[in-house]
TrEMBL record, chain A:
This is ABC transporter permease subunit. The lineage of its organism: Bacteria, Pseudomonadati, Pseudomonadota, Alphaproteobacteria, Hyphomicrobiales. The chain crosses the membrane at residues 20-42, 77-99, 111-131, 151-174, 199-221, 260-281, 302-330, 365-387, 399-423, 443-463, 484-509, 543-562. PANTHER family: INNER MEMBRANE ABC TRANSPORTER PERMEASE PROTEIN YDCV (PTHR43357). It is found in: Cell inner membrane; Cell membrane. It is a multi-pass membrane protein.
UniProtKB/TrEMBL annotation, chain B:
This is Extracellular solute-binding protein. Keywords: Periplasm, Signal. Residues 1-24 form the signal peptide. The keyword Iron does not apply. It comes from the Bacteria.
Length: 573, 333
C-alpha cells in the first residue's frame, strides 16, 4: 500500500500559482478569522475612538473564572466527542450497508443522507421541539405522555437527535473511500474462504481507518462548531455551548469582541489539538486504492438478514428524516401550533405566500438559489485548483493545508461572518473596496464557509489516486494542468459534483453569514425564515423551509444523476 | 493559472463596484421591525425613493451595527428600545435632527417619548406585560402584578436582555419601577428555570407558553395581542406596579449620504398614511400602539398608553453592561 499523497514522491510542477492561491485563501478565511480571534488579546482593536493596541488577557481569564463560559467549553467538548463517535458509527454502518450489501431500495436509501444533510440543524432541532415538547404533536396525538415529552429534552434525547442529524458527513467521507476501494481486496479474501463479517472486520474496516479518523475529526469539528442544535434543542435542555455563547457575545450593542474572540480561539484550539493527536497516532496515514486496474465491488448477499436490515433502515429513515419533515410540513399547513391537528386549523395561506414571487419569502427563495449556485461555482472552481496544487506540494505543505482546512471547518459561520464585516467595513485598505453590503460579498462569504469542505472532499478523492497515474502522465510529457484536465478530473468528477452539491446546499441554508452579510437587496432564505419565526409566522417559515428543501432535493437529484457511476471504471481502459 | 485567478478577482471587484453603484440613490434601512416592509413600500409609492431593508432581530442588528462601528452602512436605523439609541446618539453614530418631527401629530405619550437630543424619534410603541396561558395555569388565580409571578416560579418564560432590545427596555423599566435591589430579588425568586428564563426571542417565548413548557411569560404586549387574534388561549395582564413604554425609534446615521430622503422617510412614518401602512403588517409587530392621534391599534388592544412610564435612558445606558451581565449570570444557561 502506498502512502497518502504519494503522487508527489518526485515534486512535479507544483506551485506556479501557489502563492496567489494561498493569498486568496488567506483573504477568504485567514484574515477575517484572525481579526476576530486576535481581539481575545487586543480587545480595543476596533474601538470607536480609534484602534488600541494595548494587550489584555482579561477575556482569556474570563473563560475560566466565569462558570457559564467554563461550563460552555466543557459541555461543548463532551458533546463533540460523543456526537462524533455516535454519528461516525452510524454513518460508517450506513455506508457499509449500502456499499457492500444487496439491500433493497438502495437508491432511495442513498438519498437519505442528502435529505438529512440538506436540512439545516436549526430546523432539525426545531422539528424535534415541535414533535416532543409537552405541547407538541406527539403529546397532542397521545403518542407520548407530557412527562415523556419533557424527559426527551435531556442528554439521551440530545444524543438521539445528534445521531439522527450528523451521520451524513461520516457517511460521505467513508462512502467516498469505499467507492474507491476496488474489489480485488475483497475478492482475495473471498478466495481465502473468509466470510462476510470477517472480510468487513479484517479487510474493509482496517482500510477505512484513515477515512473513519477523518470522519471523527470532521464530525467533532462540525459538532463543536454547530450553531443550530446549540440554539434550539441544546438550549431547551439547559445545555450552554460555545457557539451559543459566541452568538450571545456578538448579538449585542456593543459587541463583546474580546469574549467572542477568546471563545473562537478555544474552538480553534479544540480542533487543532485533535488534529495533532490524530497525527501522533498516525491518523494521517491513508491508502491508495485507485490504480489503473480497479475491479468494482461485489455485493454481499444479505439473505435472511434482508428483512431485518430493511426494518432497521426504515426505522432509521423515519427517525432521521420523515418525522422531522412531517413536523415541519404540518406546521406549514396549520394556522397555529396550539390548534393542533383540528380540521379548522389547516390552511394553505402560508404555502401561497411562499410561492408568491412578489412576497419576501418568494424573493428569498429565488435569490438563495442564485446565491447558492454562484457560491458553489466559486468554491468548487477555487477548491479544485487549490486542492490539486496542494496535492502536488510537499508532505509538510499538505499536512499544514489539511490541518488548516479541518480547523477552519470547525469555526462557526458567525465568527467568520463577523470577520467579514471587520475586513470589508473597518480594515484600512479593504473598507474602500465596494463589496460590503453587496450580493457578491455574500456569495464570497458562502464560498469561504464551504471551501474547507470542498478541499476535504477533493483531497479525499485525490488521495485515492495512485502514483502510477501521475507517473504515466509525467513520462508521457503532459503538464500538470493537462494531467488535471485529462486524467484527474474524470476520476474525481464524482467528488467535484458532491462538493458542488454540498456547497450549494450549505450556502442556501447558511444562517450566520446570511445574517451578517445581508445584502441591501435580495434577502436570502435563512434570514427570511428566522425573521418569520421571530415575528410569529412560523407557518410561513416552515412552508419556506419545505419549499427550499424541495429545491435542494432537486439540486441533489440532479447532482446524483450527473454523477457517473462508471467514472472509476475508466481506469480500466 | 495565475492570470486566471487575477482576472477572476478583478472581475469580482468590478462586479461589486457595479452593484454598489446601482444602489447609490436608494435609502438603506436597518430594521428589526416587521412593520418596516409595509411602511417602506408605501413610502416608495408616494415618493419614488427606493428603500432597501436589512431586517434582522434586534440583537443581531445591533451586533452588525456594532461591528460596523464608525463606518455604518445604514441611512436609517429603526429598532425597538430607546436606551441603545441613546447610546448610539451619544457616540455620534446617530445625527441630531432638530425640528424634524414638529409637524407630527403625536399623542401625549408620543410627545413625551421624543428625546432631548432629537437624534432619534418614536415611531410606534408597545410595552412588556404578563402573558398567561389560560389552559395551563389551572385553578391558580391570574397574576395581577410582577410580584405575583413568584407564585409561578419555574414556569415563567422571559427573553434574555442580552439578545433582545425590548427585553432590556423591560428590565430597565422594571428596575426603575420597583427599584434595582427589590427587582433583582423578585426575579431571582421567579425565574428559577434557566431553560425558560433566557430565551432568544419573543417567538421562542411564545412557543414555550403555547406548548405548555411555560405557563406564563414576561412578554411584549403586541405579540400577546397577535396570539389572541390567532385564537390561542392567551390573556394579557398589565401588572399593577405599572409598565414602561417600549417605543420603536428611528434615527439617521451621521454618515448618511441621503440625509434629506432619510428625513422624509421618518416624517412619512409619523403621518396617518405611514401609520396605517404599518398597521397592515401581519404578525406581532402589527399590533403596536399608534403614537399619532386618531389612529386605532389592531386587534383587542386597549388604549392604556397614557399610564405608561417613560424610561430614563441615561440611567439604563449607564447600567446596561452591569444589568445585562447580572441577568446573564443569573438566568442564562
Amino acid at each position: 500500500m502506498a502512502r497518502a499523497f504519494d503522487i508527489s514522491v518526485e515534486r512535479w510542477g507544483s506551485g506556479v500559482a501557489a502563492p496567489a492561491l494561498w493569498a486568496v485563501a488567506f483573504i477568504l478565511i485567514g484574515l477575517p478569522l484572525g481579526l476576530v480571534v486576535v481581539q481575545a488579546f487586543l480587545p480595543g482593536l476596533f474601538d470607536l475612538a480609534g484602534p488600541s493596541f494595548v494587550p489584555s488577557l482579561d477575556a482569556i481569564n474570563h473563560l475560566v473564572t466565569s462558570p457559564r463560559l467554563a461550563r460552555g467549553i466543557i459541555d461543548t467538548v463532551v458533546l463533540g466527542v460523543v456526537g462524533a463517535v455516535l454519528s461516525t458509527v452510524v454513518g460508517t454502518a450506513l455506508a457499509l450497508l449500502l456499499a457492500l450489501t444487496d439491500i433493497r431500495g438502495k437508491s432511495a436509501f442513498s438519498a437519505l443522507p442528502w435529505v438529512v444533510f440538506a436540512t439545516p440543524s436549526y430546523f432539525k432541532g426545531l422539528a424535534w421541539v415541535l414533535l416532543m415538547s409537552p405541547g407538541g404533536y406527539f403529546v397532542g396525538l397521545g403518542l407520548v405522555s407530557p412527562a415523556t415529552g419533557s424527559a426527551f429534552f435531556g442528554p439521551a434525547g440530545l444524543m438521539m437527535v445528534m445521531a439522527f442529524s450528523l451521520f451524513p458527513i461520516p457517511y460521505f467521507i467513508v462512502g467516498s473511500r469505499l467507492e474507491g476501494l476496488g474489489g480485488e481486496f475483497i475478492d482475495a479474501a473471498r478466495v481465502a474462504s473468509a466470510g462476510p463479517w470477517r472480510i468487513v472486520l479484517r479487510v474493509v474496516l482496517p482500510m477505512l481507518v484513515p477515512a473513519i479518523a477523518l470522519a471523527l475529526l470532521t464530525t467533532f469539528a462540525e459538532v463543536v462548531g454547530d450553531f443550530g442544535i446549540a440554539t434550539t434543542i441544546a438550549r431547551s435542555m439547559n445545555f450552554g455551548l460555545i457557539t451559543y455563547n459566541i452568538y450571545a457575545a456578538t448579538a449585542n450593542y456593543p459587541v463583546d469582541f474580546a469574549s467572542a474572540g477568546a471563545q473562537a480561539l478555544v474552538l480553534v484550539l479544540l480542533v487543532a489539538g485533535s488534529i495533532v493527536v490524530a497525527g501522533l497516532m498516525g491518523g494521517d496515514r491513508t491508502t491508495t486504492f485507485v490504480t489503473g486496474r480497479n475491479r468494482s465491488l461485489a455485493r454481499f448477499h444479505l439473505g435472511p438478514w434482508q428483512a431485518p436490515a430493511l426494518a432497521l433502515m426504515a426505522l432509521f429513515t423515519i427517525g432521521s428524516a420523515v418525522l422531522p419533515l412531517i413536523a415541519i410540513v404540518l406546521r406549514s399547513l396549520t394556522v397555529s401550533l396550539g390548534g393542533g391537528l383540528a380540521r379548522s386549523n389547516f390552511s394553505l395561506a402560508a404555502v401561497r405566500t411562499v410561492f408568491d414571487v412578489s412576497s419576501i419569502p418568494g424573493q428569498g427563495l429565488v435569490w438563495s438559489v442564485v446565491y447558492g449556485l454562484a457560491a458553489a461555482v466559486l468554491a468548487v472552481a477555487f477548491g479544485l485548483v487549490f486542492a490539486y496544487q496542494i496535492s502536488l506540494a510537499s508532505r509538510t505543505t499538505r499536512l499544514v493545508a489539511s490541518g488548516l482546512a479541518l480547523t477552519t471547518v470547525a469555526l462557526p459561520g458567525i465568527v467568520l461572518a463577523f470577520g467579514y464585516i471587520l475586513v470589508y467595513d473597518r480594515l484600512p485598505g479593504f473598507k474602500d473596496v465596494p463589496l460590503y453590503g453587496s450580493r457578491l460579498l455574500l456569495i464570497i462569504g458562502y464560498a469561504a464557509t464551504a471551501l474547507p469542505y470542498c478541499l476535504i472532499l477533493m483531497w479525499s478523492a485525490l488521495g485515492r489516486l495512485g502514483g502510477s497515474l501521475h507517473e504515466a502522465s509525467r513520462l508521457a510529457g503532459a503538464s500538470p494542468g493537462r494531467h488535471l484536465v485529462k486524467v484527474v478530473l474524470p476520476l474525481i468528477g464524482s467528488a467535484i459534483l458532491i462538493a458542488f452539491g454540498v456547497t450549494t446546499i450549505r450556502s442556501i441554508f447558511e444562517l450566520p453569514m446570511s445574517q451578517f452579510l445581508l445584502p441591501q437587496a435580495g434577502p436570502p432564505v435563512p434570514v427570511v425564515i428566522v425573521d418569520d419565526f421571530t415575528q410569529g409566522r412560523d407557518a410561513v417559515a416552515c412552508a419556506l423551509a419545505i419549499a427550499t428543501l424541495g429545491v435542494v432535493a432537486a439540486i441533489g437529484a440532479i447532482t446524483s444523476l450527473a454523477r457517473r457511476p462508471d467514472a472509476l471504471s475508466q481506469g480500466d481502459s | 493559472m495565475k492570470s486566471i485567478i487575477l482576472t477572476a478577482l478583478s472581475s469580482a471587484l468590478m462586479l461589486g463596484t457595479a452593484m454598489q453603484a446601482s444602489q447609490a440613490e436608494t435609502l438603506v434601512l436597518y430594521t428589526a421591525l416587521d412593520t418596516a416592509d409595509a411602511a417602506a413600500k408605501a413610502f416608495t409609492e408616494k415618493t419614488g425613493i427606493d428603500v432597501n431593508l436589512v431586517s434582522l432581530s434586534t440583537g443581531e442588528l445591533l451586533g452588525k451595527v456594532s461591528a460596523e462601528g464608525n463606518n455604518p452602512k445604514f441611512d436609517i436605523l429603526w429598532v425597538e428600545g430607546s436606551a441603545v439609541m441613546s447610546r448610539l446618539a451619544q457616540q455620534g453614530i446617530l445625527k441630531p435632527e432638530h425640528g424634524l418631527t414638529t409637524k407630527a401629530d403625536y399623542t401625549a405619550l408620543g410627545k413625551k417619548l421624543v428625546p432631548g437630543s432629537e437624534a432619534f424619534f418614536p415611531i410606534s410603541v408597545s410595552t412588556t406585560a404578563i402573558e398567561v396561558n389560560t389552559k395551563k395555569i389551572g385553578t391558580v388565580p391570574l397574576p395581577t402584578s410582577w410580584a405575583d409571578l413568584q407564585n409561578f416560579a419555574g414556569s415563567v418564560a422571559a427573553k434574555d436582555p442580552n439578545l433582545s432590545g425590548p427585553a432590556f427596555q423591560w428590565l430597565s423599566g422594571y428596575f426603575q419601577t420597583v427599584g434595582v435591589d427589590k427587582g433583582q430579588g423578585q426575579l431571582e425568586k421567579t425565574l428559577t428555570n434557566k431553560a425558560l428564563s433566557g430565551l432568544q426571542s419573543g417567538e421562542t417565548v411564545n412557543r414555550a407558553v403555547i406548548s405548555g413548557d411555560a405557563k406564563i411569560a414576561i412578554q411584549q404586549d403586541s405579540t400577546i395581542y397577535d396570539l389572541i387574534a390567532k385564537g390561542e388561549p392567551i390573556k394579557v395582564v398589565y401588572p399593577s406596579e405599572g409598565v414602561t413604554a417600549l417605543p420603536s425609534t428611528a434615527g439617521i446615521a451621521t454618515a448618511s449620504k441621503h440625509e434629506e430622503a432619510a428625513k422624509a422617510f421618518i416624517q412619512f412614518l409619523l403621518t396617518t398614511e405611514g401609520q396605517k401602512a404599518m398597521l397592515t403588517t401581519d404578525g406581532g409587530d402589527g399590533y403596536f400602539a399608534p403614537l399619532i392621534t386618531g389612529i386605532k391599534g389592531n386587534g383587542a388592544r386597549v388604549d392604556n398608553t397614557a399610564s405608561w412610564a417613560i424610561l430614563d435612558d441615561d440611567v439604563a445606558a449607564k447600567n446596561e453592561a452591569a444589568w445585562k451581565q447580572w441577568f446573564r449570570d443569573q438566568f442564562v444557561p
